Amino acid sequence: MHDLGGRQGFGRVEAEPDEPPFHQPWEGRVHGMSETADVGPGFRHAIERMEPAAYLTTSYYEHWLESIETRGIEHGFFTREDLAAAAERIAAGEPVPQRSDPEAAREARAMLRPRPQSTYTAPAPRYGVGDTVTVVRVLPAGHTRCPGYLRGAQGVVERVHAPMPLLDVYESQDGLVRPEAWYTVAFPAGALWEVERPGHTILVDLWESHLEAT
Q1: Measured between alpha carbons, how far is 189 from 157 in angstroms, rounded to an integer?
Q2: 25-111 sits in which CATH class?
Q3: Fewer Cβ in 10 A, N or C end of the chain?
Q4: What are the DSSP E strand ranges found in 54-200?
Q5: What is the mean pLDDT of the chain?
Q6: Distance from C-alpha of 29 to C-alpha of 209, rounded to nearest angstrom
Q7: DSSP 8-state class, residue 26
Q8: pLDDT tens readout for residues 102-138
Q9: pTM of the model
Q10: CATH second-level architecture of 132-213?
């Protein structure tokens, strides 16, 4: 349900002029928790496993909170019963727990600054600039960075990038690092959707596992 790109019936994406970073204070707290609480990898995969109706009827930062709770439970940091009991205590008037951790705050700020880029070793790229490639039709059952609307589409490699960990594997297999080459691939917009004006090109970054030779 999370992969809504290219689907019909959801209307246009309406930009909110001068949109604030957070619409409610709790959203900022959830963002801070996500940046500082180590509850294991799989941030997006946890959101993608939400029950479809729950996903569609909850907000962006509610999805983030669900991810924190799901990963915390699955990695043994707390239980669903622990969370329910804490919610009951706070609803009954117990003060919300507070913790000041200057080191965690320093690390969170450092994440927002430029950092040295890691380098990875992987087999040589199978494709080069100008090669025509096809997006695989069968995507993995777990997390994938390949948009569903590209399944079976043909594109042309515009750029070849140095290897990076395949996030499909990292998210779905508890942080497993498996580097691969990745590519910027160009697709004619008209080959993906009905468009009012032809000539637009869609550029998508895809890992080697998402592609096959045409």
Answers
A1: 15
A2: mainly alpha
A3: C
A4: 132-135, 154-165, 179-188
A5: 92
A6: 36
A7: H
A8: 988 888 888 888 888 899 999 999 999 999 999 999 8
A9: 0.83
A10: Roll (2.30)
